[in-house]
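#struct-help
A.M.: can someone run this one for me? Single chain, 117 residues.
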Amino acid sequence: HVQLVESGGGLVQPGGSLRLSCKITGDPYSSNCRAWFRQAPGKEREGVAAFYVGGGSTYYADSVKGRFTISQDNAKNTLYLQMNSLKPEDTAVYYCVRDGGDWNPEVWGQGTQVTVS
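D.P.: on it. Structure tokens below:
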């Protein structure tokens, strides 16, 4: 079965950068969309960035466009989220997900905390 294990979260100052990683196992390489979601305290989970494995297309929430970049290392089957120019409002638990497309998460990782302060 699919397993998603995130790493790379932490505490960073405003304006700083972090790179999140998600090791994916048990998932067919070419059959899915992979995405990052986040959940801030007191808020609902929201889609942040999505990567379509087949064509390499990427999509971003308006709030992170130009600051975050989603990518995948095919050889390592690892999904990344490079986060630059971080803001306090980016503070959240970030989740790697296998997505059914159009922000429809199917399988969730355990999450990694990102704090910008």
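A.M.: thanks! The mean pLDDT is 93.
D.P.: also worth noting: The longest strand covers residues 18-25.
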